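cron nightly-structures :: item 1 of 1
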Amino acid sequence: MKQPPGYEDPTHPDHVCHLQRSLYGLKQAPRAWFKRLHDFLILAGFKSSKTDVSLFHYTADTSRVYLLIYVDDIIMMGNDETLINTLLQRLATAFKIRDLGKPGFFLGIETIAVNGGLILSQRRYMTDLLNRAGMLDCKPLTTPAAVTVSVSSDASPYENPTQYRRIVGALQYLTITRPDLSYSVNRLCQFMHAPSDDHWSLAKRVLRYIKGTFNFGLRIAPSTSTTIQAFSDSDWAGCPIDRKSTSGYAVFLGTNLISWLSRKQRTVTRSSTEAEYKALADVSAEVTWVVSLLRELGLHSSHPATLWCDNLGATYLCANPVFHARTKHVEIDYHFVRDKVASGDFVVNFVSTKDQLADIFTKPLTGPRFTQLRDKLNVVAHQPCA
């Protein structure tokens, strides 16, 4: 570091400026900003969530207020409008804030009020994405992945890998409100290092599906139930390249989908039971985190979470304490899920494959089957924006 040109001190040429306040663009700026905001909120009576560090909650009698932070964007909600306004005024005494009223557009996600609930939509983001890919006028498709098309191992490298990485990277953010894209985007992300022409064709198919579902978003509706139900599934040895399985799960709070995942497993499994059991272990970890958050906020019911699996072998393993030779190598996952079942936190039940909602996260599906599961995940159409 050197003294700025024109401001050198001839008596102390080796001295540099001492930073008194954090500035935008510096590495420590986000941390310093969050610490200042955190300290103020704690003094104002908020409690910091131990499960999610960006979440704060305030309780006064029956009134509850929740405050969620993303860098310098803040969203506040609660069941007492007077208390919310009071807290906003206190926040304005220490920070220069602008109250935008009810959330309409937050971090690229639009909230549309319908029938007493909300639809979370990223229509503008989808339009921008198609425009960047030069596919704004492409023909739409009904599914994001074809059942019969496979990727060739000897396909020629794609001539513009940077464009592929930009488009697929942008698609990842779209899965925040579009769980129906999770499997296809996860598969595209596996070829970021060396995309081929076939991979770009798969990406264009996803974009054509987006073109036909502009007005789709994730519906959040009032629910009288606060019980947790989770569906987990696995496509055993589904990847033709390394024969690893793909896990998928969907977690519902009442009737609302709150968490989902599509991810390739880290190791090769030796049976479908093992693959399904690893998927159960993944969803168990997620449900444990969700339950911890709900308990912290005082919103958790006393009912155990219900996990649904379409593999009888994996379902039996959760309740049967006897190991056999084929399951010695999954002992860690076994103990984790088994302990949760034994303690009464989870109940693992069998569900038929046709009723398995997580099927959409593990493999390409035909049009009717894909549409059926998409509807059950609360991904619905809404009125076009003006």
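cron nightly-structures :: done
The domain at 29-101 is CATH 3.30.310 (TATA-Binding Protein).
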